[in-house]
Amino acid sequence: MRIPLWKRCLSYLTEVHLESHSTEINPALHLVLVKGRLQLCTDKSIYSFEDQYDNFYQAFEKMQGHGWPYKSVLILGFGLGSIPKMLEHNFNLSLAYTAVEIDDVIIELVSDYVLPGLLSPVTLINADAFSFVMTDEATYDLICIDVFLDDVIPDQFKDTNFLEAVKARLAPHGCVLYNMLGDYEADQVKAKGFNRDVFSTVFPDAALLHTGTNFILVSDGQMISDSSDSES
After folding, report:
1. I want to staple 215 with a disulfide (CB 3.0 to 4.6 A). Which of 118, 139, 191, 204 is the partner?
2. DSSP letter string over 145-163?
C-alpha cells in the first residue's frame, strides 16, 4: 500500500497514525509512521520498526562482521517484516524466508505495506509458531525467534522441548537468534537465567547480546564474538 509522501514527511515531526485493530490475539494493535518508518506496536510493546528494530539490527551487524553464510531464514513471529526488510535494504542480502505469524490481521498488514517492496522471496504462513516448529520437516540456516504476545513470551516457547524442536530444524552450522526483553533489571535476570538454565543446555555454544532494551540469545556465540556487549 502506497503511503502519501506528506504523511512520511509529517512523521519526522510527529507520529502519524495509519491503522488500529483489535484482534483475538492482539486486543490493541497499532500501525504508525515514525521518522518515515512503519512501526507496528501494541499498548505495551513494539513488534516491528524497520531498521530501527535495534535488537535484531545490532545482532545482524555483528554477525555480518564474521561473514554471512546463511541463505534460508525461518522467522517465528513475523510482525511487519522488520527482519527481511533490514537484511535486504540495509545489509544488501538476498535470502529466502519462511515467515510464521499467528495473527491474521498482521498477515494482511504486512502483505499490504511491506511485502510488495521486497525482492526476496517470502513464504508467509498464518500459524502458531510452536505448532509449526513441532510439525515442520524443513531445515533453515538462520532461525529468528520473536514470539511476543504484547510484552510477554508465552511459556511454551521457553521450554526445552521447543528449543530441541528448533534445533532439529537448524541446518548444520546454522544459527538461532532468540529475542527477549532486557530493559529492566527483572527482565535481565530472567533472560540471563533462561540462557544459563535452558537455552545453553540445548545450544552449548550460546552467548547473550545485550542491545540496550533487549537481549538476543545467539546459539553460535562465535558469530558475535570480540564484542564488549556480548555475555556468555
Report:
1. 191
2. E---BTTB--GGGGSHHHH
Structural domains in the chain, sorted by start: 52-231 (3.40.50.150)
Nearest-angstrom CA–CA distance, 227 and 232 = 11
The burial of 224, by beta-carbon neighbours within 10 Å (0-12 exposed, 13-18 middle, 19 or more buried), is given as buried
Residues contacting residue 192 through CB under 8 Å, at least 6 positions apart: 208, 215, 231
Model confidence, pTM = 0.93
Q: Tell me which residue of 47, 53, 56 sits closest to 77, measured CA to CA.
A: 47
User: In the chain, which residue ranges form alpha helices assigned H by DSSP?
Assistant: 5-10, 54-64, 82-89, 104-113, 129-135, 160-168, 185-194, 200-202
Find, among 93, 140, 146, the residue nearest to 118 by Cα: 93
Q: Measured at the alpha carbon of residue 178, what is the angle toward residues 140 and 15, in degrees to the nearest 5? A: 110
Q: What is the pLDDT of residues 42-69, one digit of tens each?
A: 988 889 999 888 889 999 999 998 889 9
